[in-house]
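Hi R.,

Quick one: here's the Inositol-tetrakisphosphate 1-kinase sequence you asked about.
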Amino acid sequence: MEDTDKKPIHLGLLIPKEKKKKIKLPERIADLCLKENIKITEVDIHGDLESQGPFDVFFHKVVDIHKDGLSLEETENLIQKTVEYSKRHPEMVVVDDFEVVIKLMKRQYQVEILNQCSMTVDGVSVYVPTTVEIPGNTALDVCRELIERSGIKFPILAKPLASCLDGAHDMKIIFSDEKLFDLPVPCLLQEFCNHGGVIYKVFVIGDRVSMCERPSIQNIDCDPNQPSLVFDTRNVSKTGRAFIPELHGTDPNARAWLSGEENPNMLNKTVIQAIVERLSKVTRFRMYGFDILKDLEGNYALVDLNHFPGYSGISDETFKRDVVNMIKSCAGL
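And here's the predicted structure, written out as tokens:
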């Protein structure tokens, strides 16, 4: 039963329809919020924001609203509308900082943030694989020069510059200089590191850290004659997807993929805590996730950073508990 003796926490929840379907908010936390005296308002971004508030905590995934079928101009206008609303209410705690969230849409900015986590902890080297940005309309000879100057080695992974627009999951592995003719520019090139076909996803909610393992690309040799591999990362690293022999090596559906609750020692906790402390300080995020590849030497390569990921690798009870505790912490409780 709701505790009416204390002032309720007013939570504004702005989650686009497509994201809402996947993460199932506010439904997943509704009962626990009622118990903890948290009043949820699902914010209509198309309506008057002032009349829907005030809010103690404003919880958003506003950069994903383009997935609801809006044009780029409509998306930008609505994001700006929300940013201006937050500026008029500095007393409201925003989860998370609009400026950093918007910048994080660019993969090069992700790399800059992750590079600040380069360190050695407990004998484990944490690093970002060598990366170089290839601007649009870059001539092939200039592209080769940029690659040579960066010191990046083949095979290399080509990623779209934008991390949250259509096509953001479309990747290409290129094995030699001769295969650069069909490079999808603009793009971000990153040196591919063998990692045993496993990617580790680390999730942060407030001061709580969870993790899980997921299928990834098998170890590959750099055969300069091999054709480039084109793929959608969602078909490679999500459980239950079809076996792709040229990428997976072995069928990922033939084994169990564990969570950190099932295997607490899948990654070095001291190292993970050091990374989380650095990322939380730099981004000021309360909800985010990042991906780790454990290379063949046992070191940790940081390859992706996401604000408000799907959290599909942790249990429902853990997610609900951590989110509600984070909301209470934001409200000073």
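DSSP finds eleven helices and 15 strands in the chain.

Cheers,
M.
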